[in-house]
């Protein structure tokens, strides 16, 4: 029996009656995470003179955010009779004129990863920041970063996707330069420069899409692109513009050849922020690729007939997905090799993890590419499930490992491999979570990483893509090589003076232990996780359900709201 067949028999949580949730509350749940994190950001900003109160408000905001996301997961996606997709029309302006927030299985799955890693990083932050930093803008910026990520996952239109990208990036710019040293300033310069260029390209692509299609609402875009003749759209022009957007999303995801900002930025930022950048913000790029490729552009009748010079390989199909898949294959393959080889030669733990993040995002992009190029609906679904499960494991494992770097630094004052050794004997409670996360990254059963890697290999095998299977094997061997090297150099061997005098923090170790337990629990109790990923994959490919839920109508048919004097107001929507 295959894993997908086994997981199709997944058991569900004991049902809670939806009647316990007041009618219409599902719609209010959509905006709840954004409101909570916005309130936490503003409140922590106003409490700058009272660091303890600021920390308390920040932790309360993080906990409330996690509760709101859990409520969305259950009442919108997982509960018996759950609607599966819910929208919130901001200001009661109906789509496609107004700003629409949408939560479905895909966005809920992504929000869950942010909630888990976000609260872990937040708690960790309270233990590593000196008193002066607790009075700074660290906690407000943390919440604004989470606000940008949350908004990107919930928005239902392209322009506001751009806006939330910028909110996320503005906070991350400051975090990369947070320590203020020469290397941090240099890293921030390159990070800001590349992302400003990406933002300009993003805005150019958004403007072009509006000029070609007459809308930016994703559901309306999906409907119009599926029948371009009826709306006077040139689908080839739309594909060219999406190619621009795809390059922007690849930059955010850190795919080769747009990866060069990652090593310097991840080493420069505080480890708990690097955990969030690798585990959460990088997934925004992956989410955008999946959402726009499979929900918005998939049904556009665009004939693709490309040939790669000198290879004899042709790319032929009747959907933009063929082009997307081909581009992702190239970027993902290069990412796996560049990231894996680069990680093997680094001289610090965070350097290894930074290059590892480049390689691991390639493992996420490969099944997305398979889903884009296959004609089989079953294989497309399985490949997207594989990408999502692998992304979840990457969030948990890589987030834990970056937080462990923070714990190692706090305990020893260094993270250089040459200065470490014997950490396993000196602090077993630090070593055990690190070991579990490393094994999960490699893909050892029964940890969460095993299922992610198994599903990725299964997708490649079902696609009969032997070169891809070989590539995945090479990438897995490289993962074993750099994970083993870090463990041997840092945790085994003789104690160095830095390790001999190490003093660990109990709260930091508790955060690492909780994340390690989550990795184990996801693996041991994988059926509900598969069910969630299954719902997320269904949401990604079911464009009709997305369009029906958002219910876009022609803007000319919309009734303008009254201004109170009997006159109709002009379009005041988000575009």
How would you sum up this structure, described in words?
With 575 residues, the protein is mainly α. It has one domain. Helix content is 71%, strand content 3%. A two-stranded antiparallel ribbon has the order 1-2. A two-stranded antiparallel ribbon has the order 3-4. A hairpin with a 4-residue loop joins strand 3 and strand 4 (313-317). The longest helix is centred in the last third of the chain and has 36 residues, at 377-412. It is globular. The model is unreliable at 1-20 and 554-575 (pLDDT under 50). One of its GO terms (molecular function) is NADH dehydrogenase (ubiquinone) activity. It is a multi-pass membrane protein. Its EC number is 1.6.99.5. It holds the Pfam family Proton_antipo_M.
Strand content: under 5%
- Tally of contiguous helical segments: 24
Structural class determined from secondary elements: mainly alpha
Identify low-pLDDT runs: 1-20, 554-575
The proportion of residues forming helix, as a percent range, comes to over 70%
- How many beta-strand segments? 4
Which whole number gives the mean pLDDT?
86
Q: Encode the helix/strand succession as letters.
A: HHHEEHHHHHHHHHHEEHHHHHHHHHHH
* Integer tally of domains: 1
Main sheet summary: 2 strands, antiparallel
Mind telling me the C-alpha Rg?
Answer: 23 Å
Query: What's the overall geometry?
Result: globular
Spatial strand order of the main sheet: 1-2
Task: State the end-to-end distance.
Answer: 50 Å
């Amino acid at each position: 029996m295959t894993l997908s067949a086994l997981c199709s028999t997944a058991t569900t949580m004991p049902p809670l009656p939806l009647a316990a949730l007041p009618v219409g509350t599902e719609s209010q749940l959509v905006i709840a995470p954004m409101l909570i994190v916005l309130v936490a950001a503003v409140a922590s900003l106003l409490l700058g003179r009272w660091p303890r109160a600021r920390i308390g408000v920040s932790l309360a905001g993080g906990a409330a955010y996690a509760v709101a996301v859990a409520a969305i997961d259950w009442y919108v996606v997982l509960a018996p009779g759950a609607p599966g997709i819910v929208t919130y029309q901001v200001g009661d302006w109906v789509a496609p004129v107004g700003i629409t927030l949408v939560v479905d299985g895909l966005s809920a799955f992504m929000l869950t990863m942010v909630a888990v890693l976000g609260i872990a990083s937040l708690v960790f932050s309270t233990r590593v920041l000196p008193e002066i930093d607790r009075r700074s803008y660290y906690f407000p910026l943390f919440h604004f970063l989470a606000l940008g990520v949350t908004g990107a996952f919930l928005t239902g239109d392209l322009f506001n996707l751009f806006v939330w990208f910028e909110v996320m990036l503005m906070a991350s710019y400051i975090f990369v330069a947070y320590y203020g040293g020469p290397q941090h300033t240099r890293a921030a310069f390159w990070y800001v420069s590349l992302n400003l260029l990406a933002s300009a390209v993003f805005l150019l692509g958004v403007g072009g899409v509006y000029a070609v299609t007459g809308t930016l609402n994703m559901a309306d875009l999906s409907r119009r692109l599926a029948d371009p003749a009826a709306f006077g759209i040139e689908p080839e022009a739309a594909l060219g513009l999406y190619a621009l957007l795809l390059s922007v999303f690849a930059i955010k995801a850190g795919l080769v050849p747009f990866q060069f900002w990652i090593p310097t930025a991840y080493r420069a930022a505080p480890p708990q922020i690097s955990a969030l950048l690798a585990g959460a913000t990088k997934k925004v790029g992956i989410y955008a690729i999946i959402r726009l490729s499979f929900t918005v552009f998939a049904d556009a009748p665009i004939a693709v007939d490309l040939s790669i010079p000198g290879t004899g390989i042709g790319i032929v199909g009747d959907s933009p997905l063929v082009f997307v898949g081909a581009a992702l294959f190239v970027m993902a393959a290069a990412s796996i090799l560049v990231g894996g080889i680069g990680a093997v030669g680094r001289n610090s733990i965070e350097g290894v993890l930074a290059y590892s993040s480049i390689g691991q995002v390639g493992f996420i992009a490969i099944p997305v590419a398979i889903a884009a190029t296959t004609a089989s609906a079953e294989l497309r679904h399985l490949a997207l499930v594989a990408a999502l499960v692998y992304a979840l494991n990457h969030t948990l494992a890589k987030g834990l490992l970056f937080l462990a770097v923070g714990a190692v630094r706090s305990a020893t004052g260094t993270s250089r491999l040459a200065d470490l050794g014997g950490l396993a004997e000196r602090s077993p409670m630090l070593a055990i979570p690190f070991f579990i996360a490393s094994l999960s990254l490699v893909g050892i059963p029964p940890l969460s990483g095993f299922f992610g890697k198994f599903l990725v290999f299964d997708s490649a095998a079902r696609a009969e893509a032997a070169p891809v299977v070989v590539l995945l094997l090479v990438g897995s061997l490289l993962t074993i090589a750099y994970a083993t090297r870090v463990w041997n150099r840092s945790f085994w061997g003789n104690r160095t003076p830095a390790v001999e005098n190490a003093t660990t923090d109990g709260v930091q170790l508790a955060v690492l232990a909780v994340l390690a337990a989550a990795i184990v629990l996801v693996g041991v109790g994988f059926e509900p996780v598969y069910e969630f990923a299954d719902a997320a994959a269904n949401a990604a490919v079911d464009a009709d359900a997305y369009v029906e839920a958002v219910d876009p109508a022609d803007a000319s048919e919309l009734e303008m709201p009254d201004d109170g004097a009997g006159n109709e107001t002009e379009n005041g929507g988000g575009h």
